[in-house]
Amino acid sequence: MSDTPHIQNRHRPVTTETPAFRAALILVVVLFLALLLFAPLVAVFAEALSKGTVEAVKSLANPEAASAIKLTLIVAAVAVPLNAIFGIAAAWFITKYDFRGKALLITLIDLPFSVSPVVAGLCLVLTFGANTAVGGWLVAQGYPIVFALPSIILASMFVTFPFVARELIPVMIEQGRAEEEAALTLGASGWRIFFTVTLPNIRWALLYGVLLCNARAMGEFGAVAVVSGKIRGQTATMPITIEMLYNEYLSVAAFSLAAVLALLALLTLTLKTLLEWRFADQLAAAHRP
Amino acid sequence: MRPLINRSPLPGMALSAGITLTLLSLVVLLPIGALLLRGANAGLPTLWTEVNTPRIWGALYLSFRLSFIAALINLVFGVALAWVLVRYRFPGRRLLDAAVDLPFALPTAVAGIALTALYAPNGAFGSIARDLGFKIAYTQWGILIALIFVGLPFVTRTVQPVVEEIEREVEEASATLGATRAYTLRRVVLPMLTPAALTGFALSLARAVGEYGSVIFIAGNIPLKTEIAPLLIVIKLEEFNYTGATAIGIAMLLISFAMLLLINAIQVFSRRRIGYV
After folding, report:
1. Residue B206: count of CB within 10 angstroms of its CB
2. How close, in Å, is residue B152 to chain A by CA atoms?
3. Per-residue pLDDT at A196 exceeds 80
Protein backbone atom coordinates (compact mmCIF):
# COMPACT_ATOMS: atom_id res chain seq x y z
CA MET A 1 0.00 0.00 0.00
CA SER A 2 1.21 3.51 -0.67
CA ASP A 3 1.78 6.25 1.83
CA THR A 4 -0.93 8.39 0.25
CA PRO A 5 -4.37 7.27 1.38
CA HIS A 6 -6.26 9.24 -1.26
CA ILE A 7 -5.26 6.86 -4.03
CA GLN A 8 -6.70 3.87 -2.16
CA ASN A 9 -10.00 2.37 -3.23
CA ARG A 10 -12.45 5.20 -2.69
CA HIS A 11 -15.38 2.99 -1.79
CA ARG A 12 -13.65 1.33 1.12
CA PRO A 13 -13.56 3.12 4.48
CA VAL A 14 -10.07 3.58 5.85
CA THR A 15 -10.98 1.91 9.13
CA THR A 16 -11.42 -1.58 7.78
CA GLU A 17 -9.26 -4.23 6.17
CA THR A 18 -9.35 -5.38 2.54
CA PRO A 19 -12.23 -7.73 1.65
CA ALA A 20 -9.76 -10.53 0.90
CA PHE A 21 -8.11 -10.14 4.31
CA ARG A 22 -11.50 -10.07 6.02
CA ALA A 23 -12.67 -13.21 4.23
CA ALA A 24 -9.43 -15.02 5.08
CA LEU A 25 -9.61 -14.06 8.78
CA ILE A 26 -13.26 -15.11 9.03
CA LEU A 27 -12.39 -18.42 7.38
CA VAL A 28 -9.51 -19.04 9.80
CA VAL A 29 -11.55 -18.40 12.96
CA VAL A 30 -14.54 -20.38 11.66
CA LEU A 31 -12.26 -23.34 10.88
CA PHE A 32 -10.62 -23.04 14.30
CA LEU A 33 -14.00 -23.08 16.06
CA ALA A 34 -15.34 -25.84 13.81
CA LEU A 35 -12.43 -28.15 14.64
CA LEU A 36 -12.29 -27.34 18.34
CA LEU A 37 -15.87 -26.49 19.37
CA PHE A 38 -18.44 -27.79 16.95
CA ALA A 39 -16.77 -31.09 16.09
CA PRO A 40 -16.70 -32.35 19.72
CA LEU A 41 -20.31 -31.30 20.18
CA VAL A 42 -21.36 -33.23 17.07
CA ALA A 43 -19.20 -36.18 18.18
CA VAL A 44 -21.14 -36.48 21.47
CA PHE A 45 -24.46 -36.91 19.67
CA ALA A 46 -23.00 -39.03 16.85
CA GLU A 47 -21.46 -41.48 19.34
CA ALA A 48 -24.61 -41.59 21.46
CA LEU A 49 -26.77 -42.41 18.45
CA SER A 50 -24.23 -44.71 16.75
CA LYS A 51 -26.30 -47.81 17.59
CA GLY A 52 -29.63 -46.09 17.02
CA THR A 53 -31.94 -43.95 19.10
CA VAL A 54 -33.52 -46.95 20.84
CA GLU A 55 -30.17 -48.10 22.29
CA ALA A 56 -29.37 -44.58 23.44
CA VAL A 57 -32.69 -44.12 25.23
CA LYS A 58 -32.49 -47.64 26.70
CA SER A 59 -29.08 -46.90 28.19
CA LEU A 60 -30.52 -43.84 29.95
CA ALA A 61 -33.33 -45.88 31.45
CA ASN A 62 -31.04 -48.27 33.34
CA PRO A 63 -30.94 -47.82 37.14
CA GLU A 64 -27.32 -46.61 37.21
CA ALA A 65 -27.95 -43.74 34.80
CA ALA A 66 -31.27 -42.93 36.45
CA SER A 67 -29.69 -42.69 39.91
CA ALA A 68 -26.87 -40.52 38.52
CA ILE A 69 -29.38 -38.10 37.01
CA LYS A 70 -31.30 -38.02 40.29
CA LEU A 71 -28.14 -37.37 42.33
CA THR A 72 -26.99 -34.58 40.03
CA LEU A 73 -30.41 -32.92 40.31
CA ILE A 74 -30.31 -33.17 44.12
CA VAL A 75 -26.80 -31.69 44.27
CA ALA A 76 -27.79 -28.77 42.03
CA ALA A 77 -31.03 -28.25 43.95
CA VAL A 78 -29.07 -27.71 47.17
CA ALA A 79 -25.83 -26.11 45.94
CA VAL A 80 -27.31 -23.55 43.52
CA PRO A 81 -29.85 -21.93 45.90
CA LEU A 82 -27.22 -21.80 48.68
CA ASN A 83 -24.78 -20.07 46.34
CA ALA A 84 -27.54 -17.74 45.15
CA ILE A 85 -28.29 -16.76 48.77
CA PHE A 86 -24.57 -16.31 49.37
CA GLY A 87 -24.23 -14.22 46.21
CA ILE A 88 -27.11 -11.92 47.17
CA ALA A 89 -25.86 -11.55 50.76
CA ALA A 90 -22.27 -10.91 49.68
CA ALA A 91 -23.31 -8.39 47.02
CA TRP A 92 -25.55 -6.58 49.53
CA PHE A 93 -22.83 -6.51 52.17
CA ILE A 94 -20.14 -5.36 49.73
CA THR A 95 -22.14 -2.74 47.83
CA LYS A 96 -24.36 -1.23 50.57
CA TYR A 97 -21.74 -0.64 53.28
CA ASP A 98 -18.27 0.85 53.55
CA PHE A 99 -15.78 -1.16 55.53
CA ARG A 100 -12.10 -1.92 55.65
CA GLY A 101 -10.87 -5.09 53.93
CA LYS A 102 -13.47 -4.99 51.17
CA ALA A 103 -10.89 -5.65 48.44
CA LEU A 104 -9.56 -8.62 50.40
CA LEU A 105 -13.08 -10.01 50.81
CA ILE A 106 -13.70 -9.76 47.06
CA THR A 107 -10.39 -11.50 46.36
CA LEU A 108 -11.29 -14.32 48.76
CA ILE A 109 -14.70 -14.75 47.10
CA ASP A 110 -12.96 -15.02 43.70
CA LEU A 111 -10.40 -17.49 45.05
CA PRO A 112 -12.20 -20.69 43.91
CA PHE A 113 -11.82 -19.58 40.27
CA SER A 114 -8.06 -19.84 40.51
CA VAL A 115 -7.87 -23.08 42.49
CA SER A 116 -7.74 -26.33 40.50
CA PRO A 117 -10.93 -28.37 41.07
CA VAL A 118 -8.79 -31.33 42.09
CA VAL A 119 -7.05 -29.23 44.75
CA ALA A 120 -10.51 -28.11 45.93
CA GLY A 121 -11.52 -31.74 46.32
CA LEU A 122 -8.27 -32.49 48.14
CA CYS A 123 -8.93 -29.62 50.57
CA LEU A 124 -12.36 -31.04 51.40
CA VAL A 125 -10.91 -34.53 51.96
CA LEU A 126 -8.31 -33.06 54.32
CA THR A 127 -11.01 -31.11 56.20
CA PHE A 128 -13.83 -33.62 56.49
CA GLY A 129 -12.21 -37.00 55.64
CA ALA A 130 -12.74 -39.92 58.05
CA ASN A 131 -9.13 -39.63 59.31
CA THR A 132 -9.48 -35.98 60.36
CA ALA A 133 -10.72 -34.81 63.77
CA VAL A 134 -13.93 -33.23 62.47
CA GLY A 135 -14.59 -35.93 59.87
CA GLY A 136 -13.87 -38.79 62.29
CA TRP A 137 -16.29 -37.40 64.86
CA LEU A 138 -19.02 -36.89 62.23
CA VAL A 139 -18.54 -40.47 60.94
CA ALA A 140 -18.86 -41.76 64.52
CA GLN A 141 -22.16 -39.84 64.83
CA GLY A 142 -23.33 -41.49 61.62
CA TYR A 143 -22.93 -38.46 59.35
CA PRO A 144 -20.08 -39.14 56.94
CA ILE A 145 -19.19 -36.12 54.82
CA VAL A 146 -16.54 -37.41 52.40
CA PHE A 147 -17.57 -40.22 50.02
CA ALA A 148 -21.16 -39.14 50.68
CA LEU A 149 -23.68 -36.54 49.49
CA PRO A 150 -22.54 -33.61 51.73
CA SER A 151 -19.02 -33.55 50.26
CA ILE A 152 -20.38 -33.65 46.70
CA ILE A 153 -22.56 -30.64 47.53
CA LEU A 154 -19.63 -28.84 49.21
CA ALA A 155 -17.35 -29.56 46.22
CA SER A 156 -19.98 -28.27 43.79
CA MET A 157 -20.46 -25.17 45.95
CA PHE A 158 -16.70 -24.54 46.09
CA VAL A 159 -16.20 -24.51 42.32
CA THR A 160 -19.31 -22.38 41.66
CA PHE A 161 -18.91 -20.14 44.71
CA PRO A 162 -18.15 -16.78 42.99
CA PHE A 163 -20.65 -17.04 40.08
CA VAL A 164 -23.68 -15.19 41.51
CA ALA A 165 -21.73 -12.70 43.64
CA ARG A 166 -19.50 -11.73 40.69
CA GLU A 167 -22.52 -11.10 38.51
CA LEU A 168 -24.40 -9.05 41.11
CA ILE A 169 -21.62 -6.87 42.55
CA PRO A 170 -20.94 -4.71 39.43
CA VAL A 171 -24.68 -4.28 38.79
CA MET A 172 -25.37 -3.22 42.38
CA ILE A 173 -22.37 -0.87 42.46
CA GLU A 174 -23.75 0.81 39.35
CA GLN A 175 -27.22 1.17 40.86
CA GLY A 176 -25.92 2.75 44.04
CA ARG A 177 -27.79 3.11 47.31
CA ALA A 178 -30.08 6.09 46.66
CA GLU A 179 -33.21 4.06 45.81
CA GLU A 180 -32.87 1.88 48.91
CA GLU A 181 -32.22 4.93 51.10
CA ALA A 182 -35.30 6.64 49.67
CA ALA A 183 -37.40 3.56 50.47
CA LEU A 184 -35.99 3.63 54.00
CA THR A 185 -37.00 7.25 54.56
CA LEU A 186 -40.51 6.31 53.41
CA GLY A 187 -40.61 3.78 56.21
CA ALA A 188 -40.10 0.50 54.39
CA SER A 189 -38.64 -2.43 56.31
CA GLY A 190 -35.39 -4.11 55.26
CA TRP A 191 -37.08 -7.08 53.59
CA ARG A 192 -39.58 -4.81 51.87
CA ILE A 193 -36.73 -2.69 50.50
CA PHE A 194 -35.00 -5.81 49.22
CA PHE A 195 -38.03 -7.39 47.57
CA THR A 196 -39.61 -4.26 46.09
CA VAL A 197 -36.60 -2.07 45.29
CA THR A 198 -33.40 -4.10 44.99
CA LEU A 199 -34.63 -7.43 43.61
CA PRO A 200 -36.47 -5.96 40.59
CA ASN A 201 -33.25 -4.13 39.68
CA ILE A 202 -31.05 -7.19 39.88
CA ARG A 203 -33.40 -9.99 38.81
CA TRP A 204 -31.93 -10.59 35.34
CA ALA A 205 -28.36 -10.43 36.59
CA LEU A 206 -29.36 -12.86 39.34
CA LEU A 207 -30.91 -15.23 36.81
CA TYR A 208 -27.79 -14.97 34.66
CA GLY A 209 -25.53 -15.86 37.57
CA VAL A 210 -27.78 -18.71 38.70
CA LEU A 211 -27.82 -20.10 35.14
CA LEU A 212 -24.03 -20.26 34.93
CA CYS A 213 -23.76 -21.56 38.48
CA ASN A 214 -26.22 -24.35 37.71
CA ALA A 215 -24.47 -25.43 34.52
CA ARG A 216 -21.14 -25.69 36.29
CA ALA A 217 -22.60 -27.40 39.38
CA MET A 218 -24.31 -30.10 37.29
CA GLY A 219 -21.23 -30.67 35.17
CA GLU A 220 -18.45 -30.49 37.77
CA PHE A 221 -16.07 -33.42 37.46
CA GLY A 222 -12.61 -32.84 38.99
CA ALA A 223 -13.61 -31.72 42.49
CA VAL A 224 -16.46 -34.24 42.73
CA ALA A 225 -14.25 -37.09 41.44
CA VAL A 226 -11.93 -36.61 44.42
CA VAL A 227 -14.60 -36.51 47.14
CA SER A 228 -17.36 -38.77 45.82
CA GLY A 229 -15.74 -42.18 46.30
CA LYS A 230 -17.55 -43.20 43.08
CA ILE A 231 -19.99 -45.61 44.71
CA ARG A 232 -22.38 -46.84 42.03
CA GLY A 233 -25.98 -45.87 42.60
CA GLN A 234 -25.03 -43.74 45.62
CA THR A 235 -22.35 -41.13 45.08
CA ALA A 236 -21.84 -41.25 41.30
CA THR A 237 -23.09 -38.03 39.71
CA MET A 238 -23.71 -37.79 35.96
CA PRO A 239 -20.14 -36.78 35.03
CA ILE A 240 -18.69 -39.48 37.33
CA THR A 241 -21.00 -42.10 35.81
CA ILE A 242 -19.93 -40.98 32.32
CA GLU A 243 -16.32 -41.64 33.32
CA MET A 244 -17.12 -45.09 34.77
CA LEU A 245 -19.14 -46.16 31.73
CA TYR A 246 -16.49 -44.83 29.36
CA ASN A 247 -13.71 -46.72 31.16
CA GLU A 248 -15.78 -49.90 30.88
CA TYR A 249 -16.01 -49.39 27.11
CA LEU A 250 -19.79 -48.88 27.34
CA SER A 251 -19.51 -46.17 24.71
CA VAL A 252 -23.18 -45.73 23.82
CA ALA A 253 -24.22 -45.51 27.48
CA ALA A 254 -21.42 -43.04 28.30
CA PHE A 255 -22.16 -40.80 25.32
CA SER A 256 -25.93 -40.94 25.84
CA LEU A 257 -25.50 -39.58 29.35
CA ALA A 258 -22.96 -37.07 27.96
CA ALA A 259 -25.53 -36.03 25.35
CA VAL A 260 -27.99 -35.18 28.13
CA LEU A 261 -25.38 -32.89 29.72
CA ALA A 262 -24.50 -31.45 26.30
CA LEU A 263 -28.19 -30.61 25.77
CA LEU A 264 -28.18 -28.89 29.15
CA ALA A 265 -25.11 -26.91 28.07
CA LEU A 266 -26.83 -25.89 24.82
CA LEU A 267 -29.95 -24.86 26.74
CA THR A 268 -27.80 -22.82 29.14
CA LEU A 269 -26.02 -21.09 26.25
CA THR A 270 -29.34 -20.33 24.54
CA LEU A 271 -30.92 -18.82 27.66
CA LYS A 272 -27.71 -16.91 28.43
CA THR A 273 -27.61 -15.48 24.90
CA LEU A 274 -31.30 -14.51 25.07
CA LEU A 275 -30.68 -12.73 28.39
CA GLU A 276 -27.71 -10.92 26.86
CA TRP A 277 -29.74 -9.75 23.86
CA ARG A 278 -32.84 -8.77 25.78
CA PHE A 279 -31.45 -7.37 29.04
CA ALA A 280 -27.86 -6.44 28.15
CA ASP A 281 -28.10 -3.14 30.05
CA GLN A 282 -29.08 -4.91 33.27
CA LEU A 283 -26.24 -7.46 33.28
CA ALA A 284 -22.77 -7.12 34.77
CA ALA A 285 -21.02 -7.00 31.38
CA ALA A 286 -22.59 -3.59 30.76
CA HIS A 287 -21.27 -2.17 34.01
CA ARG A 288 -17.60 -3.08 33.78
CA PRO A 289 -15.32 -0.14 33.06
CA MET B 1 -7.44 5.71 60.97
CA ARG B 2 -10.59 4.90 59.07
CA PRO B 3 -13.20 3.08 61.18
CA LEU B 4 -13.60 -0.64 60.54
CA ILE B 5 -17.17 -0.13 59.39
CA ASN B 6 -18.93 3.15 58.61
CA ARG B 7 -22.39 3.39 60.10
CA SER B 8 -25.10 3.07 57.50
CA PRO B 9 -28.84 3.60 57.80
CA LEU B 10 -29.59 0.63 55.52
CA PRO B 11 -30.69 -2.45 57.47
CA GLY B 12 -29.44 -5.99 57.00
CA MET B 13 -25.75 -5.45 57.61
CA ALA B 14 -25.39 -8.06 60.33
CA LEU B 15 -27.45 -10.59 58.39
CA SER B 16 -25.65 -10.14 55.06
CA ALA B 17 -22.23 -10.06 56.71
CA GLY B 18 -23.12 -13.16 58.71
CA ILE B 19 -24.24 -15.19 55.70
CA THR B 20 -21.29 -14.03 53.62
CA LEU B 21 -18.61 -14.78 56.18
CA THR B 22 -20.14 -18.06 57.39
CA LEU B 23 -20.49 -19.60 53.94
CA LEU B 24 -17.16 -18.23 52.76
CA SER B 25 -15.43 -19.76 55.78
CA LEU B 26 -17.21 -23.09 55.63
CA VAL B 27 -16.98 -23.70 51.88
CA VAL B 28 -13.71 -22.01 50.89
CA LEU B 29 -11.48 -20.80 53.74
CA LEU B 30 -11.76 -23.75 56.13
CA PRO B 31 -10.88 -26.36 53.44
CA ILE B 32 -7.97 -24.32 52.05
CA GLY B 33 -6.81 -23.71 55.63
CA ALA B 34 -6.94 -27.47 56.28
CA LEU B 35 -4.64 -28.07 53.31
CA LEU B 36 -2.15 -25.45 54.52
CA LEU B 37 -2.36 -26.72 58.12
CA ARG B 38 -1.67 -30.27 56.95
CA GLY B 39 1.34 -28.97 55.05
CA ALA B 40 2.57 -26.99 58.08
CA ASN B 41 2.24 -30.08 60.30
CA ALA B 42 4.21 -32.20 57.86
CA GLY B 43 6.94 -29.55 57.70
CA LEU B 44 8.77 -28.10 54.76
CA PRO B 45 11.48 -30.81 54.50
CA THR B 46 8.87 -33.59 54.28
CA LEU B 47 6.84 -31.68 51.68
CA TRP B 48 9.99 -31.09 49.66
CA THR B 49 10.93 -34.79 49.76
CA GLU B 50 7.44 -35.67 48.57
CA VAL B 51 7.52 -33.21 45.66
CA ASN B 52 11.16 -33.70 44.73
CA THR B 53 10.74 -36.79 42.54
CA PRO B 54 11.26 -36.95 38.77
CA ARG B 55 7.66 -38.06 38.27
CA ILE B 56 6.17 -35.02 40.06
CA TRP B 57 8.58 -32.51 38.54
CA GLY B 58 7.82 -34.09 35.18
CA ALA B 59 4.09 -33.68 35.71
CA LEU B 60 4.34 -30.09 36.96
CA TYR B 61 6.63 -29.16 34.07
CA LEU B 62 4.35 -30.88 31.55
CA SER B 63 1.22 -29.16 32.94
CA PHE B 64 2.86 -25.77 32.94
CA ARG B 65 4.57 -26.06 29.54
CA LEU B 66 1.50 -27.35 27.67
CA SER B 67 -0.75 -24.82 29.44
CA PHE B 68 1.58 -22.03 28.36
CA ILE B 69 1.56 -23.16 24.70
CA ALA B 70 -2.23 -23.59 24.78
CA ALA B 71 -2.66 -20.11 26.27
CA LEU B 72 -0.37 -18.64 23.56
CA ILE B 73 -2.45 -20.26 20.81
CA ASN B 74 -5.62 -19.00 22.51
CA LEU B 75 -4.07 -15.53 22.72
CA VAL B 76 -3.56 -15.34 18.94
CA PHE B 77 -6.88 -16.89 17.94
CA GLY B 78 -8.74 -15.17 20.76
CA VAL B 79 -7.71 -11.70 19.59
CA ALA B 80 -8.50 -12.61 15.96
CA LEU B 81 -11.87 -14.01 17.02
CA ALA B 82 -12.75 -10.95 19.11
CA TRP B 83 -11.86 -8.68 16.16
CA VAL B 84 -13.91 -10.73 13.69
CA LEU B 85 -16.94 -10.91 16.01
CA VAL B 86 -17.01 -7.16 16.70
CA ARG B 87 -15.86 -5.62 13.42
CA TYR B 88 -17.05 -7.93 10.64
CA ARG B 89 -20.60 -8.69 9.57
CA PHE B 90 -21.24 -12.12 8.10
CA PRO B 91 -23.99 -14.77 8.26
CA GLY B 92 -23.77 -16.87 11.42
CA ARG B 93 -21.85 -14.25 13.39
CA ARG B 94 -24.25 -14.25 16.33
CA LEU B 95 -24.25 -18.05 16.46
CA LEU B 96 -20.45 -18.02 16.49
CA ASP B 97 -20.48 -15.39 19.24
CA ALA B 98 -22.79 -17.49 21.42
CA ALA B 99 -20.77 -20.66 20.72
CA VAL B 100 -17.54 -19.17 22.09
CA ASP B 101 -18.82 -19.84 25.62
CA LEU B 102 -19.40 -23.54 24.93
CA PRO B 103 -16.26 -24.60 26.87
CA PHE B 104 -17.67 -22.77 29.93
CA ALA B 105 -21.03 -24.51 29.62
CA LEU B 106 -20.04 -28.00 28.49
CA PRO B 107 -19.01 -30.25 31.42
CA THR B 108 -15.31 -31.08 31.23
CA ALA B 109 -15.87 -34.85 31.32
CA VAL B 110 -18.17 -34.55 28.28
CA ALA B 111 -15.59 -32.47 26.43
CA GLY B 112 -12.91 -34.98 27.42
CA ILE B 113 -14.60 -38.07 26.02
CA ALA B 114 -15.81 -36.17 22.92
CA LEU B 115 -12.31 -34.92 22.07
CA THR B 116 -10.92 -38.40 22.68
CA ALA B 117 -13.53 -39.96 20.38
CA LEU B 118 -12.55 -37.47 17.66
CA TYR B 119 -8.79 -37.57 17.97
CA ALA B 120 -8.23 -41.24 18.92
CA PRO B 121 -6.54 -43.30 16.15
CA ASN B 122 -9.94 -44.73 15.11
CA GLY B 123 -11.78 -41.38 15.44
CA ALA B 124 -12.85 -38.97 12.70
CA PHE B 125 -9.78 -36.70 12.92
CA GLY B 126 -7.46 -39.20 14.56
CA SER B 127 -7.72 -41.62 11.62
CA ILE B 128 -6.66 -38.89 9.19
CA ALA B 129 -3.68 -38.11 11.43
CA ARG B 130 -2.89 -41.84 11.68
CA ASP B 131 -2.81 -42.16 7.89
CA LEU B 132 -0.33 -39.27 7.85
CA GLY B 133 1.79 -41.02 10.45
CA PHE B 134 0.72 -38.92 13.46
CA LYS B 135 -0.82 -39.83 16.76
CA ILE B 136 -2.84 -37.15 18.57
CA ALA B 137 -4.85 -38.70 21.39
CA TYR B 138 -2.77 -40.37 24.15
CA THR B 139 0.16 -38.05 23.35
CA GLN B 140 1.04 -34.50 24.44
CA TRP B 141 -0.74 -33.23 21.31
CA GLY B 142 -3.99 -34.58 22.71
CA ILE B 143 -3.44 -32.80 26.03
CA LEU B 144 -2.66 -29.60 24.14
CA ILE B 145 -5.94 -29.79 22.20
CA ALA B 146 -7.94 -30.33 25.40
CA LEU B 147 -6.18 -27.37 27.07
CA ILE B 148 -6.83 -25.11 24.06
CA PHE B 149 -10.49 -26.13 24.28
CA VAL B 150 -10.95 -25.22 27.96
CA GLY B 151 -9.07 -21.91 27.67
CA LEU B 152 -10.65 -20.78 24.42
CA PRO B 153 -13.25 -18.27 25.69
CA PHE B 154 -11.01 -16.28 28.05
CA VAL B 155 -9.01 -14.11 25.62
CA THR B 156 -11.98 -13.50 23.33
CA ARG B 157 -14.24 -12.48 26.19
CA THR B 158 -11.71 -10.09 27.75
CA VAL B 159 -10.70 -8.49 24.42
CA GLN B 160 -14.20 -8.18 22.89
CA PRO B 161 -15.45 -5.28 25.08
CA VAL B 162 -12.20 -3.37 24.45
CA VAL B 163 -12.58 -3.71 20.67
CA GLU B 164 -16.13 -2.37 21.03
CA GLU B 165 -14.78 0.66 22.91
CA ILE B 166 -12.15 1.64 20.34
CA GLU B 167 -13.10 4.92 18.73
CA ARG B 168 -12.96 4.83 14.96
CA GLU B 169 -11.67 8.40 14.97
CA VAL B 170 -8.33 7.17 16.26
CA GLU B 171 -7.98 4.81 13.32
CA GLU B 172 -9.16 7.52 10.91
CA ALA B 173 -6.59 9.92 12.33
CA SER B 174 -3.91 7.33 11.80
CA ALA B 175 -5.04 6.81 8.19
CA THR B 176 -5.14 10.54 7.44
CA LEU B 177 -1.59 10.82 8.72
CA GLY B 178 -0.59 8.39 5.99
CA ALA B 179 -0.42 5.11 7.86
CA THR B 180 -1.31 1.98 5.96
CA ARG B 181 -4.01 -0.24 7.46
CA ALA B 182 -1.44 -2.82 8.57
CA TYR B 183 0.61 -0.09 10.27
CA THR B 184 -2.50 1.29 12.02
CA LEU B 185 -3.44 -2.17 13.27
CA ARG B 186 0.07 -2.84 14.53
CA ARG B 187 0.87 0.52 16.10
CA VAL B 188 -2.55 1.92 17.07
CA VAL B 189 -5.05 -0.89 17.57
CA LEU B 190 -2.86 -3.67 18.95
CA PRO B 191 -1.39 -1.62 21.82
CA MET B 192 -4.93 -0.79 22.97
CA LEU B 193 -5.83 -4.50 23.04
CA THR B 194 -2.64 -5.70 24.72
CA PRO B 195 -3.61 -5.36 28.43
CA ALA B 196 -6.95 -7.15 27.95
CA ALA B 197 -5.31 -9.80 25.80
CA LEU B 198 -2.63 -10.43 28.44
CA THR B 199 -5.28 -10.68 31.17
CA GLY B 200 -7.13 -13.23 29.03
CA PHE B 201 -3.87 -15.07 28.43
CA ALA B 202 -3.16 -15.30 32.16
CA LEU B 203 -6.75 -16.45 32.92
CA SER B 204 -6.51 -19.09 30.21
CA LEU B 205 -3.13 -20.23 31.55
CA ALA B 206 -4.41 -20.45 35.13
CA ARG B 207 -7.41 -22.48 34.02
CA ALA B 208 -5.31 -24.87 31.94
CA VAL B 209 -2.76 -25.60 34.69
CA GLY B 210 -5.47 -26.86 37.03
CA GLU B 211 -7.59 -28.60 34.40
CA TYR B 212 -8.41 -32.25 35.02
CA GLY B 213 -11.68 -33.52 33.52
CA SER B 214 -11.14 -32.79 29.87
CA VAL B 215 -7.49 -33.89 29.90
CA ILE B 216 -7.39 -37.29 31.61
CA PHE B 217 -9.38 -39.09 28.91
CA ILE B 218 -7.27 -37.89 26.00
CA ALA B 219 -3.91 -37.93 27.82
CA GLY B 220 -3.22 -41.65 28.13
CA ASN B 221 -1.67 -40.81 31.53
CA ILE B 222 1.78 -42.36 31.03
CA PRO B 223 4.13 -41.30 33.87
CA LEU B 224 6.78 -38.79 32.77
CA LYS B 225 5.19 -38.49 29.32
CA THR B 226 1.50 -37.59 29.48
CA GLU B 227 0.76 -37.43 33.20
CA ILE B 228 -0.55 -34.04 34.41
CA ALA B 229 -0.09 -32.63 37.92
CA PRO B 230 -3.76 -32.76 39.06
CA LEU B 231 -3.90 -36.47 38.16
CA LEU B 232 -0.97 -37.13 40.52
CA ILE B 233 -3.02 -35.71 43.41
CA VAL B 234 -5.81 -38.15 42.59
CA ILE B 235 -3.31 -41.04 42.40
CA LYS B 236 -1.72 -40.11 45.77
CA LEU B 237 -5.17 -39.95 47.37
CA GLU B 238 -6.05 -43.38 45.98
CA GLU B 239 -2.85 -44.68 47.61
CA PHE B 240 -3.92 -42.97 50.89
CA ASN B 241 -0.69 -40.96 50.71
CA TYR B 242 -2.22 -37.78 52.15
CA THR B 243 1.12 -36.08 52.76
CA GLY B 244 2.12 -36.62 49.13
CA ALA B 245 -1.22 -35.25 47.92
CA THR B 246 -0.86 -32.28 50.28
CA ALA B 247 2.62 -31.50 48.93
CA ILE B 248 1.46 -31.43 45.29
CA GLY B 249 -1.72 -29.56 46.29
CA ILE B 250 0.30 -26.82 47.99
CA ALA B 251 2.67 -26.60 45.01
CA MET B 252 -0.33 -26.10 42.70
CA LEU B 253 -1.93 -23.60 45.08
CA LEU B 254 1.30 -21.56 45.03
CA ILE B 255 1.27 -21.61 41.21
CA SER B 256 -2.36 -20.38 41.29
CA PHE B 257 -1.50 -17.54 43.67
CA ALA B 258 1.48 -16.55 41.53
CA MET B 259 -0.84 -16.29 38.53
CA LEU B 260 -3.42 -14.27 40.47
CA LEU B 261 -0.63 -11.82 41.32
CA LEU B 262 0.45 -11.79 37.68
CA ILE B 263 -3.11 -10.92 36.53
CA ASN B 264 -3.33 -8.14 39.13
CA ALA B 265 0.09 -6.82 38.12
CA ILE B 266 -0.95 -6.70 34.46
CA GLN B 267 -4.06 -4.74 35.37
CA VAL B 268 -2.25 -2.29 37.65
CA PHE B 269 0.48 -1.81 35.02
CA SER B 270 -1.95 -1.12 32.20
CA ARG B 271 -4.11 1.15 34.35
CA ARG B 272 -1.01 3.26 35.00
CA ARG B 273 0.05 3.20 31.38
CA ILE B 274 -3.16 3.80 29.49
CA GLY B 275 -5.70 4.55 32.15
CA TYR B 276 -8.09 1.62 31.70
CA VAL B 277 -8.18 -2.15 31.53
Report:
1. 25
2. 9
3. yes
